[in-house]
Specification:
This protein is mostly beta strands. Helix content is 0%, strand content 53%. The chain has a single domain (23-99), classed as Sandwich (Immunoglobulin-like), CATH 2.60.40.10. It comes from Goodfellowiella coeruleoviolacea.
C-alpha cells in the first residue's frame, strides 16, 4: 500500500454484519475480465462528493458500508481507471463491478 491508510479488502463480511439492518456495497475491480488487485476504490455520494476509499484485494474485491441511496464507485489503478453506478434501495448486500481500462 502507498500509505494512504485505505484498508485492503477481502471477500467475507465481518462477523456480526446484519444485512437486514446494514447497507453493504461490494464488488470487484476488473480489467478485461481479470480481477485487479491494489486498485484504489473510491465511494462518491449522489452529489459526487468523496466519501471513502479502500484498496481492492489481490482478487479485486472491495467493500463499503454505506447509507441507502445512489452511489458512484470509482477505481484508480496503473492499468487504468473506471467507474460504475450502484443504487442501494435499502439494507442488504448490493454488488457492483468496476471495469478499468
Amino acid at each position: 500500500m502507498d500509505g494512504c491508510g485505505a484498508p485492503e479488502q477481502g471477500v467475507p463480511l465481518p462477523a456480526g454484519v446484519n444485512l437486514d439492518e446494514q447497507t453493504v456495497l461490494a464488488g470487484k475491480v476488473l480489467a478485461g475480465g481479470t480481477p485487479v488487485g491494489g486498485a484504489f476504490v473510491r465511494l462518491l455520494d449522489s452529489s459526487g462528493e468523496f466519501t471513502a476509499e479502500v484498496v481492492s484485494s489481490a482478487e479485486g474485491d472491495f467493500r463499503f458500508f454505506a447509507a441507502p441511496g445512489g452511489w458512484t464507485v470509482r477505481a484508480l489503478h496503473r492499468q487504468g481507471n473506471g467507474q460504475a453506478e450502484v443504487t442501494a434501495a435499502g439494507p442488504g448486500l448490493h454488488t457492483v463491478e468496476v471495469a478499468v481500462a
